[in-house]
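ok trying again, last paste got cut off:
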Amino acid sequence: MSIFFLIVFFIISVIYTRKVYFPLFMASILSVSTDINYISVIVLFFVVLFGFLNRLIYFNRKSFLFFLLSFFVMVFIIFLGIKNGGHIYNAVGKSLKIFIILFLFFISYKDGFISFYDIRKNIRVFYLITFISILVLYNAGYYNDQGIILERVSGFLYDPNYLSLFCFIFILYLSYFGKLLGIKYKKDILCLLLIILLCQSWSMFIFVFIYYLIGYKRLCDFGKLINPYFSIIIVFFIYFSLYGLDKIVAYQDWSESHLSLKLNSLIFRLNAMLDGFSVITTNSDILLYGMGSGRSLEITDRVFHNLYFQQLFDHGIVYYLVFSLLLWYLCKHKIFDKVGMVHVVIFFLALNNIVFDNFYSFIFPFSIFIFLSTKERTNTLLNSMRII
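nice, full thing came through this time. structure:
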């Protein structure tokens, strides 16, 4: 069913916007969070390559050199994990993801690459198809994730948390550019908030509350301050939190209490991280270069659902430092000051990565992409955007 709704989303978006590339790009990003995610990375690779070959996106010389340097350093470290038992096909898969992510970070965009009005049309098609898919799939008994009253819904994606995160990013996007351009957007926001409510994602409830309570300006200032160092701060926090901690016993009344169910989810993740922590702290090679992509399933029967610890476990502290340096550079770049909401977006995405992975699921680079590629991103049009 995911394929069907993705195709419908793409077709309607093309008809509505009269453009092909961005609907195709957005559909390929969404496909990573569906049941066909095993082929979606390859599809996304060719979509990005298509944009490059058609000169919709491009590199300048300096950014291309930075892209190649970052890519080869990170891939080299990823393949070092093979000596600790990592599998080569997992290393190749992770390398392909890194290629796409870095590509999206370092490219420049053709003048007037995409308009706010076109992206808003894509967002409207997205929440329309989501509402239709919820009605169809809910009545078909597709959703089985227990909620407070009703089952949690995920639209045509496979996880309610990812659907609600997309909706939250779109709320930030519409809020920023809608205000900048003096466009009415409240009805769109209400539709997206309704989807978040149906998803019953507590992390998104908290994010929405924080955003509207604190406000854009203060969050932007705070994001500028903390974002460059967030990954370093969080890894120290994780280390001192796990050090000396014993496993926690799960609640037995999870079938009767929604709160116990949610707490158990956190407990299972924490216990899995404790198992992983015991592995990386008893072997210096694993601490340096990791066990290799996908190996956490062998140790704990689950992924850690924490990007920072997952990277430390999979690829070691050397890779983690390179990753942190890359994020530091991006967050410090002056182009972000021209689109202040990007600081807010990165802050929420970095926070969200504590409980989910939005980085290798491409939500992180996609979010930056739509903000920086929008031609109305400032009151005065810029000729192009360059990270480097």
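cool. The first strand starts at residue 57 and ends at 58. The chain is about 70% helix and 0% strand.
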